[in-house]
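Page 47, continued from p. 46.
Same chain as before, 292 aa.
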Amino acid sequence: MKLLTKFNLILLVIFAAFGFLISQLAHSFLVDNARREVLEQAQLMMASAESVRNYTANDLSPLLQQNPRHRVRFLAETVPAHGATATFNNLRKDYPDYTYKEATLNPTNLEDRATDWEADIIRDLRDNPGLKEKTGDRETPDGRSLYIAHPLVVTKPCLECHSEPKVAPPAMLAVYGSANGFGWKLGEVIGAQIVSVPMSLPVTIANRAYHRLLLFLIVMMVAAILALDAGVYYFVIRPLKIVSDTADRASRGEKDVPPISIKGKDEIGTVAASFNRMQVSLVKALKMIEEL
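Result:
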């Protein structure tokens, strides 16, 4: 086996070992980083939903309530949750993996009723008043899912519709009835804004970056091996081949073998200088023998 082949095998083993270690660490880092990016995107969407809620409650709803139609037909646009949900549904055209829900323990619209896992989040937010945000992941039939949740706290405008049925707008009672969505208390956590996204999204993002990293590592490894091969051949194998060829000619008894012209103070240069001295001494010794 040639020296360059042995050298390449050693490099391949070293690069493969370190490449495997780096790739494993990089994959874990990329998944964590992608998870943070997805949650940051979810936080932006949550902020957008909260902004729509505030706009609806403070600006849009007072105007719509002055509309005579609102007295005979309930206008869902007066409800902050409706505006936030409708806006988020428009966002989903560009971000289809994200979902938004304003889950409530006792909602007027039963479509907003919290599921078991959503109810657990709401109770946790209710039991910890200082907790303004809760993030985590959970198992779903489609795989793991990330979520971010903010508490929904009852304010004075909420009590205009959700304190007692007798003070609620008749148009709302005509649509939803008087059995649900009442008895709310000021300052109580009655629900949560929840943005969910499948864990497959950050994993997909991480895998895409991971494959690009692997490709980059392979290209860099091949480039490094080729560069090292060129250096080894030029600085080691080529000089050794010159020394070997010169020694072979001298061993066959050739008398006009020129000295090796390898300059440098490294080990190869030292070997070449030693060989030149040996060759000179050998020529002198042969002349002395011939004179005898």
